[in-house]
Amino acid sequence: MSAYPEQGEGALVPGRGAKIVTILVGRKFSPTRVALENGETCVGANWSWGRDIGADWEHVYFAEDGLDFFLSTEQIIALHDPATSEKLFSREDT
Predict the structure, then answer these.
(1) 89 pLDDT higher than 50
(2) Alpha-carbon distance 43 to 88, whole Å?
(3) Would 7 be classed as within a structural domain?
């Protein structure tokens, strides 16, 4: 059983990736570098998000250069500002 409120029908309920979602959505159109568990990185802006019924983690979406990216926040281990290299989030710090 999850310690997070279940996502049911209706309004989105914050899950385990809420901190990541808050950072990405709060940056609006500012690019953010995302580091994933598998060692890959991507840079995106203008993120949208959701949470599937029964899921603990949110998913995020962005489009860049005609490509669509859909990620689970469970995969994200760090966020950085690509212009300054400022660390915005690290799973190690949580």
Answers:
(1) yes
(2) 13
(3) no
Q: What is the mean pLDDT of residues 28-44?
A: 94
The model carries a pTM of: 0.84
Residue 92 DSSP code: G
Cα dihedral value 86, 88, 89, 90, nearest 10 = 0
Contact 87, 80 (CB under 8 A): yes
| Cβ-contact 31, 83 below 8 angstroms | yes
- Assess if residue 60 is contained within a domain: yes
3 Cβ contact list (under 8 Å, min separation 6): none
Torsions phi, psi for 25 (to 5 deg): -70, -35
CATH number at residue 76: 2.30.30
